[in-house]
Backbone:
């Protein structure tokens, strides 16, 4: 595949989930571009079936409001929104000069694509399949050239491919405490080396492999080296032959790291419709237009929860996943996620794929905006929900509660390392959480309240009341967050 050199791109953040309401998933980038420039852009290379929302059972009202609110400036820096339901494209809008033929820097969506390539390598016999215990093969066996690094530590000898895929290697790593232009950031150190995989594996062991989720872009790059070793091709060349070409993805760019590896951590640039194809491939259990691209077993295994990530989506094999909460409902979803709000959401129960792309480098609220688009417009347009959450569904009309009644909810609530403080002030309940602005709690019943963050995302809080009416705790849900807080010294 032809390549071209490109100037270094601006460093960006890295795909971790933080436990505050204003946090963002992020990705990373690299240098030295490799691209597919020999094909002229043609976003109609695959005939897309289009349909009205109503034809596929969606309520057009919320989607019309989404279009109007976007036009009114409610979601600045939004580049594209695409919705596919039942295989038909029902919503496609571009903004700020972006269009169907504009490549989007996808950041850490690249990780999920790297995961697909591992599954394809298994299907081709380049790696043992899942049935053959492929995910449980030791890294030492797969990459014996690092024997001097791994063999020296008895815990590292227990490092398996599934630990790499699920970011649970137990290695010391920090790419969240410092910006991506700070040399103290582990990924900044790794990406500047000729061998970022060696740098990653040299890191000290701080936990048993499989015990903890720690976001680690170096592990994603290890997959790039594994593809190159087993196939004899770069990950970009391998993807071009076995993934992109079958999906008629012709116009893309995939950066290389200084040492020559394809940046499977965060270097892929693609058009939004092509991102949608990746979501549809997985929604269809690895098939595309009747052709098997990757095994159904790999799709299922890579998008199920392998590691719990408190207060945010959980993690599969380089895919995020979990129950997405909106109002009194919830639905399981998995997603590929990149810095600045780049997303491929898949909701299997709704036969739904949603692609959202944003401004990469200047979008601190990208995560909240994505959550708002899903919870306020897209999911309410569905005509049913696969499984109600355990939150009851009383009327959403606010309930009048007097000051004496409200005061019983006041107090300090704790969950793991999080704290929520609720005060009764002038006849209103005000909640304060670290990293979030104060939120007024609107009562919908004596146990259920709603708050809104920055006029974007609705947070639902259900209080745990004893038989005597004392408040003992509260459960807060929004998006992929579902947190149960206990009240400190509750009244008895």
Residues:
């Amino acid at each position: 595949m032809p390549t071209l050199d490109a100037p270094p791109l601006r460093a960006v953040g890295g795909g971790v989930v933080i436990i505050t309401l204003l946090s963002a998933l992020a990705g990373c980038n690299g240098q030295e571009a490799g691209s597919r420039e020999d094909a002229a852009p043609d976003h109609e290379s695959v005939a897309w079936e289009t349909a009205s929302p109503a034809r596929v059972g969606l309520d057009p009202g919320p989607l019309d409001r989404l279009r109007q609110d976007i036009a009114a400036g409610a979601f600045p820096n939004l580049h594209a929104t695409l919705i596919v339901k039942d295989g038909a494209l029902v919503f496609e809008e571009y903004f700020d000069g972006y269009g169907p033929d504009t490549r989007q820097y996808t950041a850490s969506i690249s990780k999920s694509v790297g995961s697909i390539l591992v599954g394809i390598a298994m299907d081709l016999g380049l790696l043992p399949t899942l049935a053959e215990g492929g995910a449980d093969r030791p890294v030492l066996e797969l990459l014996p050239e690092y024997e001097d690094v791994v063999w020296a530590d008895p815990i590292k000898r227990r490092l398996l491919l599934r630990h790499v895929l699920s970011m649970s290697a137990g290695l010391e790593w920090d790419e969240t405490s410092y910006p991506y232009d700070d040399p103290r950031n582990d990924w900044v150190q790794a990406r500047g080396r000729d061998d970022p995989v060696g740098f990653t594996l040299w890191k000290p062991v701080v936990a048993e492999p499989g015990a903890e989720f720690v976001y680690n872009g170096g592990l994603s790059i290890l997959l790039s080296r594994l593809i190159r070793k087993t196939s004899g091709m770069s990950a970009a060349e391998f993807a071009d032959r076995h993934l992109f070409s079958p999906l008629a993805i012709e116009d893309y760019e995939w950066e290389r790291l200084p040492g020559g590896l394809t940046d499977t951590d965060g270097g892929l640039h693609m058009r939004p419709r092509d991102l949608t194809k990746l979501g549809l491939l997985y929604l269809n259990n690895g098939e595309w237009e009747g052709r098997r691209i990757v095994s159904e077993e790999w799709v299922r295994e890579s998008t199920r929860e392998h590691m719990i990530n408190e207060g945010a989506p959980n993690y599969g094999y380089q895919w995020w996943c979990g129950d997405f909460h909106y109002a009194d409902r919830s639905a399981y979803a998995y997603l590929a996620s990149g810095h600045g709000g780049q997303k491929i959401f898949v909701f299997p129960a709704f036969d739904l794929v949603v692609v959202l792309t944003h401004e990469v480098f200047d979008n601190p609220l990208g995560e909240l905006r994505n959550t708002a688009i899903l919870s306020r417009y897209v999911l309410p347009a569905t005509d049913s929900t696969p499984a109600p959450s355990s939150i009851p569904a009383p009327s959403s009309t606010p309930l009048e509660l007097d000051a004496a009644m409200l005061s019983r909810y006041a107090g300090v609530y704790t969950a793991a390392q999080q704290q929520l403080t609720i005060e009764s002030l002038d006849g209103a309940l005000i909640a304060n959480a670290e990293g979030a602005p104060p939120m007024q709690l609107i009562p919908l019943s004596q146990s259920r309240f709603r708050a809104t963050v920055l006029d974007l995302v609705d947070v639902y809080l259900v209080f745990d009341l004893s038989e005597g009416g004392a408040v003992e705790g509260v459960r807060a849900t929004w998006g992929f967050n579902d947190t149960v807080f206990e009240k400190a010294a509750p009244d008895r």
Summary: The two ends are 70 Å apart (CA to CA). The chain has a mean pLDDT of 87.
